[in-house]
Each structure stands twice: as C-alpha cells, then as structure tokens.
C-alpha cells in the first residue's frame, strides 16, 4: 500500500481500531485507580474506588437525580455556548473588517478574558437575578473569548492568495466571512470551539459549586457540591465521571466534524 | 388569607443544612401559596451569607437566612434590613484530631485552623477566644484558613489542617472519625449567636400583614420541626437540593443532637457587634438589640 | 487574427510601485511605468525573474495601490479588485481547499453572475472540459497535481467571462502539449469574446505567438524597456516571428549580461 | 504609497496610533461605567464607581495589601503556567510522533479538560497539602489543555511541503519539533498561550476564592473574596481592575512577540 | 559531456503507486514502472500534466511507499527520505517562512553536514550567488517572487551536495534567460561533482538538452511509454537533437490525441 510516510509508516503494519485503543487506555486507567484506592490505604472518605463510583452512578441514574442534573447543566451550557459562539464569530468578523472592531476586540479581550467568571458572578446576579440566566451569562462570558480569539487568529492567518481570490470575485463582506474566512479558518475555529466547550463546562460546574444557585433544579455542579457537603465521595466521583463522559462524547463529535471537513479538504493531517 | 396587601412576587433565599428544615417543610406544605394565591412564591438556595446579602441588596430576594456576623456587616454598611425572627441556635465545635491540641495555646504558627469564611460566626468566635485565652484577638489570624465545611472535613481527616471549626453535620462526623473538641462556641460568647431570618425594613413597612403572616408561618413550622424530628428528617432526606442524599436515620440523629436547637428569639446581636467593632470589622454598635429587630421580635432578643 | 479596437481599456501613467510592511516600505519595485492597453488586445509582459511582473499585474488587478501615478481601467482609477478583471495567480494555492474543483467554479459563477446552480454547473463543466480537468471535477484541490490546479484556476477565470483576463504565468506548470493546447483554446476564446488579455509569461515565444504587444521590463528596479508591437507576427514560420523573438531575446539578454558566463545557447530552442 | 488593499485601504488615510485608540476606548468605557453607577440608582453596595475603585486601588497599594496579593498570585501563576507550557508542548509533540502518544493525548484531553479545577481541588489538597502547590497544580491543570490542544492543531495543520522538506533534511525528531514544527505552528501556539494565560488567571483567582489560604500570603482571589465577605465593592472592583490591567500588559507583550515573529514572517496579517 | 558510470544507483521494479486517504485509497496513479538510473547520469521525466511525474519522483525521494514493487537506492530499499536525495519541490512554499533565505540554506547545512556557522554561511552565499538570489539573502521568503523562491530552493538542494538531486520542475517559474543560465549552471555542477540528477520537466527540449535518458510517461494511469537514450544529443544543432525532440513529441502527442482539436503548432517553437 502506498501510504504517505509523514509519520512512522514502517510501524503501521497493524493497529487496533481507534475506539479499541481508547478503551484500552481507559481500562488501564481504571485499573490503576482501583489499585491506588485499594492498596494505598487512602481514606475512602476522600477518594472513591471505581466500583463504588459505578454503584453511585447506577443508583443516581435510576432515581432520576443524575439525569435531571445533567439536563439542567447541559441546557445552561447549550444556551450559553450558542450565544457565545455567535457573539465570538461576530466579534472576530468585525475585528477583521473595521479598525474600530479590531480595537474593540483587542480591548475587550484584554480586559475581560482574564476575569474569572466566579469573580463576576455577584455582578451577574445583580443583572440577571437568582436564575439560570446568571449562570448562562457567565458561560457566555467564558466561551466567547476562546472563540473570538481563535477565530481572529484563524482569519488573520489565511493565506494572501486566498484573500486575493476573494477580493477578485468582488465578494461582499458577508460573503467573504461566510464563504471564505469561516471555512479557511475552520481548523482554528474548531480548536476554539473545543476549548470553549471545555471551559464552558468548567464555568457551569464551577458556578454551580461556588455560588450554588439551585432552586429545585440544580445541575451537575450542585450535585457534586451536595455530595461533598454530605461527604459522599462515590457521588462526587460519579459526577466527575459523568462530566468526563460527556466530554469524551463531544470529543468524538468534534473528531467526526474534523474528519468530514478539514481533514477531507487536506487542511489538517488525519488523527 | 388576605391577598390585597401582598406583593406580586416573594423570593425566599435560604442556605442548605439542618437549619433549612423549617423552610423545606414550609415549602413542601405550600402554606404561603395557599395563603397568598396571587403572590408568586419562589425558593432559592445559595450557599453563603454573602450570597444571601447580595440577593437581598439587588432585590432578587426578599427574605433571607444567614448568620449574625454577615448580617451585621450588611447592617453596618447601610442595608436597611432587620431580623424577622431567628431560625436556630447552634453550638459549633473546634475539633482537632491530633491529641496534642488541647487548648488554643497548643497551636503553633504552622497549625492551620479551618473556618468556612472570614466573616463567618466561627471566625469571629475564634478571635474572641484568642482574645480571652491568648490575650490578643489577632493571635490566630495567621492560622486561619477559609475552607468550605466539606473540604475542611477532608483536610482535617487527611492532616492538612490541624483543626476545624464548622458545624453540623460535619463536627459530628469528625468526632466519629476520632476527633476531639478543643473549644465550644457557647463557652466563648455564651449560648448565643443564631441563624437569622431577615427582611428589609421597607418591605415590612409596605406589607406589614403579609410579613406578619410569614413570621407566624415560620414560627409554626419551627415549633413543628422542634417537636417532630422524624418528619423533619424525612423532609430533609427527600429534598435533594438542601438535604443532599443523607438518610432519614442520619438526619434524625443530627436533629436529636442538642448542638442545634430551633430557637425563634435572636441572640448575641449586641455581643457580636461589640466585639466586631472592637477588632475593626464593623464601624458601629447598635444601641440595643431592638435597633436590629422588626416588630415581630421587638424587644425579645439580646 | 485581427487588430484590437483602438480604444484604451487599461492605462498606467507614471506608476511607481513598492511594498509596504507595517510602517516600513520596501525599495521601489517598479518605476515610472507608462503604458496603455487597447480594448480587446492581448498584452504580454515579460522580464527577468523577480523584476516585478507579478507586482505590475497585481496593480492592474487592484491588489496594490500605486505609490505614484495612476492606474485606470475604462478611464476610472482602480480602487479595488473586481470580477470584471478575472485574475489567475502564479501560485498553486488559489483554489478554495474546502470546495471541489467543480464547486470552486460554480461558487464563483453564483456569486459574481448570480447564475442558478444548474446553469452554473453546466458552464463550469464546460470550462473544465476545455482545460481537460473534467475528470477531477469532484476532487478536492489538495488531490490535484500542480498543473491541474493551475488549469482549474484558469477555467474559473475563463468561466467568469470578464472584461479583462489577468494571468500571471498561467501555463508555467504545464507540459508542452497541454500548454500549446491551452494557448490555442485561449485564442479561440479571445476570438469569440473579444476579451482583453494581460498575460505574464517567461516564454518569449509564447509572448510573440499570443500577443499583440509585448512589454519588456528591465531587471529591478524595473522600468519599461520597450513595448514591442507583435500583432503582425502570428505565423510561426514568418520572418517577423523570428525577428521579434530575436529582438526580445536581445533585450532580455542585455539585462542579464553579467549572468551569461559560459556558452550562449540559442534560446529559441532550449527552454 | 503602495499598500496591499486587503483591508479597506481607502479609509486608511488617517488613523490614530494604536495606544491612543485603546485609551480612547478605555475612556469611553470608564465614563459609561461612571454614568451607569451615578444615574441608574443601582445600590453602591453592589457596584462601585470608577472613582471609588480608584480610591480603593490607591489606598490598598499604599498599605501594601495589593502589591503583596499580586505577587502571590503572579508567583503561583508563573510556576503553574511554566509547568503547563512545557507539559503541553511535550504532550503535543508525543502526540505527533507516536500513535500511543496521540491516543493518550486524545483520551487525557477528553477526560480531563472538561473537569473544573475547583471540582478537583479536594483531591489536589489530598495530594499536595494545603499549600500553594495545590493551587499551582490546578493552574497546571487549567493551562495544559489549551496549550496542548492548540499546539496539536498547529502541528497537524502544517503544510505537506514543509513536512516533506523536514523529512528530506533527515532531521531527528527533536530537531523537527524544535526547528520546524514549533515555528511553523507558532500562530496556533501563541493563540493557545494567550488562552492559557487567561484561563490560568481564572484558575488562580478562582482557586484562591474557593480555597483561600489566608493569613499573610493570600493572593488576588483572596483579596477579592475578602472584600466580598466584608461588603466592600470598591475593593472588589480594585481587584478586578488589577487583574484586567495585568491582562492588558500581557496582551501588549503577546502583540510584540507576534510582530517580531509571525507577522514578520508573513504568516499572519498585521494587527 | 561524458557517459555516466555503468552502475545503477536508483532502481524501480514493477512499482505501482496510489494515494491513501484514511482508509480509502485512490485509483492507481502509476502502474508497473520498472527502470534503473545509473550513478552520475542525468535522468529526465516527462509526461502529460497530471499523469504522475510528481508522484513518481516523490516515491524515489521516499515520501511515498510503493503499493507494489520496490524502489531501491544504492541497492537498499527506500524506507524514508534523507538528505542524500536532496529534493526540490514543485510548489513555492518549500522555504521555511521563519528563516531568511540565507538562513534557510545555512540551517540545512548545519543540520545535515554539521558545518560550523561561518562555513555554512560561506557555502550558502556561494550557491545563492550561483542562482542569482544573493541580493535577497536577508529577506524572508514571503517577500520573494515566485521564481526567486524556486531558485532559492534550488540553491538549498545544491548546497547539500547530495548523491542524488531530485528536482520537480525546478525551472518551471523562470524566464527563458534565467532558466537557460541555470541549466548551464546545473551542467557545470554535474560535471564537477558527478551527482546523479533526476529531473521532472514539462519541456521536451530541456529534457533532451540536459538528459542522458528521458522517461516518457503515458497519461493516467501512467505507465512507462519509453525510456529514450539522449546521451548523444547534446549539441543543439545536431540532427540527433532534433530527431529526439520530434520523437518525444510524437510520443506525447499520441497520448493526447483527443486534446488536439485545431491546428498543430510546431512544439519546438511555441512553448
Ligand atoms: N494527495 C493526493 N491524493 C489523491 N490523488 C492525488 C494526490 N496528489 C495527486 N493526486 C493525483 O495523482 C495524479 C498524478 O498527480 P501528480 O502530481 O503526480 O502529477 P504530475 O505528473 O506531477 O502533474 P503536473 O505536471 O501537473 O505537476 C493526478 O491525477 C492527481 O489528481
Ligand atoms: N510582499 C513583498 N514584500 C516585499 N517585497 C516583495 C514582496 N513581493 C515581492 N517582492 C519583491 O518585489 C520584486 C518583484 O517581485 P515580483 O513577484 O513582482 O517578481 P516577478 O517579476 O513576478 O518574478 P517571477 O518571474 O519570479 O515571478 C522582487 O524583488 C521581490 O523580492
Ligand atoms: Mg511572478
Ligand atoms: Mg507535478
């Protein structure tokens, strides 16, 4: 077979399929974890074993506590990230086409991106009330900067020739952004989205933990915090595992998107 | 009930824990909803006194529960809130695992003591105790670590901190795990210092009858809880938001413990304020407890 | 082949060009260029490598602003690029990586001519056929050979059916047969549409064969050495053809005197 | 002047220098803030005016509280990010050169990057004690993923030709990474660093807020949290302003680095 | 010019090549190619655009693995690329954007030959002088014209003083004079060093003039049409030269029969 030799092709004689390799690594990880808990003599009040975690997972899935917590968090996340993505893309586009937009993005990113969402939660509450809007706002705040920063970098690293072709076709600004800049910057944008999602999650969970706005419908952060409050490490770990699993799921989705776009277009090496 | 003199919406902001039992039962029985069908009653749970304060300042919540010191800080900075009634009176214990720690004198500069927050009742008590036993209110400032009760319990058990001053149910679990009590808060200020239920003066003035009804409901539920530990434990265990997964038996034994009593009369307001002013945390002291109370408890507290 | 109309479509008067980098400016690349291109003519640009051919044709395309002097098209000063001046760039990265070859052309037709998709596909297919890349119509650009990319870009420019075709060494990566074939196709299209063609080439014979006028640039800083009228030299065997070729060659050789160290090989043969 | 027309060149006849424009935008921002506080009737207990903030800033700078808090936080951040950067780059490099490395990075990123640092603080505490090591660990944890993810994307979007040249020179893996991949992926890496810094900050401040090691050596998070507990909005805002100002400072540094590298190399359009 | 040694340095036996994309595989590009290249000879590859010339020379360079058959260099199967087979790529992006032109060559010399910097600079300057890009030695690649980039890449390959020079249309972007000049330089270097040269070109005359053997590929899927011995045809005016040119031309034309629709222009002239 004629394979591009860009990466250690000699060794590629036989490989497991991707999912199997991931599961293998995961299994090794789980075993190490179980062994650490069983053998190190660490207090079971501090760290739960995989088995205990599994039990907690099953129990809290059965009684509906986890599903509803997941739903609440996901909903906050989805709304927040949706707004964050649109805002980030718009900011980056403005930044590309007008000097004022660029200055604004520079100042906004510099001033706001280092501010921790937690630190602005009290203000947020003032504006949005003791509701999930406050959490959604900090998620927007947490995801808009990675998206706009990555998109802006992506836009500004588009090759000169590509830019010139767009100009030659006499595209409107909207067309240029939608049809040229977005696809050309897609590797950057996807990597921004990946981060935005991860940090959006952090913000949702972190905000729920620190600030504990709950009402009857607390999310995953609330679930974890409660478990901590009542010293229930298996539930803490169950919450963390759920967060991770959702992460893995989303990662698969991202890989699929990459495969269908930038890898197919030759803009990025395959995984 | 009369709804003519009621607000259109009313938000109650409370903190999780055993003291929340009153509110959970009030919520479950929908007493207020029945009395005021035209008022939108909302329940919000936040996890610190300062969050309650922020909710009330921004008018996102009207009724809040919090400890004496955060209440006093708010009052000192000009918030127009007053005490509607007390929720509970608790005794918190300073617990250490290492038998070396018998009194405050045994804490060296590297022995950390966990408290929930720098403005929490526990932090104030510890300073007062330092003043009494060591002659300097700030003698232990360098030892203080702000750490959530749950994290603090873990830190104590794993030896990261020398002692922890939190409350129920953490202190009972810490004792069960081999800890011992170094200090009772009731030994420092006396059996005072309570969880407070507060309301702004202006709200009370605008809706006096509504406020009085809420007060009466809370008094009723508080009495009920004090006399029906089993039912209260069931409510706590069932309410995942504020109870959080404990079993009925666990809650029952915590309620049976005398370190927390459902006490409606505010106490310790003046004592705490006097001390907090003396160490510079607030700038004024009320003439009497009366200055801090709404007519519902007027003249009863100290 | 007939004479072009006697009406200037592109005019440069005393144009100087340089590159700008932030606040720094490069040395002058082109100095004091004055020329006019008649509507419907085929205007060739030749000159030593690196002299400024690309720079000059980019200025006509509207991608560079003149430092001094003025570039006008149809009597109007050139302010920005546009699809009335379809551009074929010198490098291989001018197709959009995220569209198939066919879709690259279809897209260009849709945004510039607002053709319905069906019609755009037909036209695109026609031009892909013409440059013999129809077999790769559904491939993504990164799967094409260098010459195929150049031909596809040529097809896109032709499909736009512009007033002016600006081409920067469009046949540079092609073998003799394909190159010759495309020269003939270009002539056919020119005869049919009367499009004005400005073409940069490094082949003297291509210039003489295709062009009505050949602009010879000196090495840098480039100036106009001569604009040779080659409109009568269309017959390859005519003495005029040979005379023009030798003349152009001598103009270029004069420029590169110091380069010629060994034997001088007849250029008309070895190239 | 000959200016590339890639961005609205017509309008660029006169522009203020960058710093002046930023200061202008900042000033407008400050005025809007002051007006909001003065006119909206919002409780001064929740939001401080710029003037009150300035007073608090001056007072707490004078009494040494802020400088020492800044120092503590910066120190934690610098150590944490240093480790995070090195780890991230190593992970991305392993991921490029070995299938196992790639699988590992994929799994690690998917599993760990969505976990909020706050949620793992209790575990951290268990491993590192109640010292600044715990905070440093969560900073590492917070900065390693943006760096490794961006670097990995950067590595994998390096052009095929560049890769082939590296292979042709027979470079060792170390040379390939150090001399080819790192500079070629620099636009991505810098955008990852920018984010890592922003999120590192968030983590430091967030961790200090949640986990506040008090006493004489509290950082900025502790400072803000303390101000919040004692209902002192001017000090809260003073803390936020300090964080932002440090952000602006670092942003300037990043822009300078970009100017000296990827802009100079033509890999990115100038600001 | 003398005869090359009668010792094969490159051998292909029954080699088939195809491209791999993830798990999909392209149609066969080259089929059953068998050939051998003698040490010290100049071996030319011609064929229609898109037939597989680049693919073939990349396989010799070690960038592609044969699907069937074997490629050996010095009797050893080719496993990966190396600086003993210096490669000049077809496209313009083969210089490292982050190094100046001079530094590109100096770097290559330092890592492959471990020359001290001083000496590397001398050698690099010498070769830049040779290809006439010395004036741009301190520029970054993005400031170079297409032809200058190609010449700089050529200088780098020459500077490596390899056993085998693999060149993919190295003179494609050059004007006649520069091209001719470099052909002569190449001959000089070849005579001095006895390097084996494999060169892809689209010019029949270049092939006959430079080459000892000319491999003619058919259009896709490409096969070996003929390997013509042109070692005797070095004199441009000799009948052998003309005969070989016409023969190669007829081979190519046969391939492209369907392409030729109009008049057939003598290829030796118009190209
Ligand atoms: N990465 C790739 N993936 C799939 N197919 C490819 C790839 N690169 C090239 N091809 C195909 O392989 C064939 C030969 O390409 P190659 O680049 O070898 O041609 P070439 O002879 O060098 O042409 P040119 O003279 O135009 O450079 C073409 O049909 C092309 O579409
Ligand atoms: N972006 C740039 N910045 C600075 N100088 C540049 C830039 N692009 C080109 N130059 C310089 O301008 C001069 C002319 O370049 P140009 O690309 O116009 O040459 P050309 O005639 O097209 O050459 P070729 O035939 O090799 O393509 C060269 O000396 C080159 O170094
Ligand atoms: Mg050019
Ligand atoms: Mg090729």
UniProtKB/TrEMBL annotation, chains A, D:
The chain crosses the membrane at residues 20-38, 68-92, 104-121, 127-147, 204-224, 236-257. GO terms for biological process: transmembrane transport. It is a multi-pass membrane protein. It holds the Pfam family BPD_transp_1. Keywords: Cell membrane, Membrane, Transmembrane, Transmembrane helix, Transport. Residues 66-254 form the ABC transmembrane type-1 domain. It is found in: Cell membrane. CDD domains: TM_PBP2 (cd06261). Belongs to the binding-protein-dependent transport system permease family. This is ABC transporter permease. It comes from Dictyobacter arantiisoli. The lineage of its organism: Bacteria, Bacillati, Chloroflexota, Ktedonobacteria, Ktedonobacterales.
Automatic annotation (TrEMBL), chains C, E:
Residues 10-244 form the ABC transporter domain. It comes from the Bacteria. SUPFAM superfamilies: P-loop containing nucleoside triphosphate hydrolases (SSF52540). GO terms for molecular function: ATP binding; ATP hydrolysis activity. InterPro entries: AAA+_ATPase, ABC_transporter-like_ATP-bd, ABC_transporter-like_CS, ABC_transporter_ATP-bind, P-loop_NTPase. Keywords: ATP-binding, Nucleotide-binding, Transport. It holds the Pfam family ABC_tran. CDD domains: ABC_NrtD_SsuB_transporters (cd03293). The keyword Kinase does not apply. Signal peptide: none annotated. This is ABC transporter ATP-binding protein.
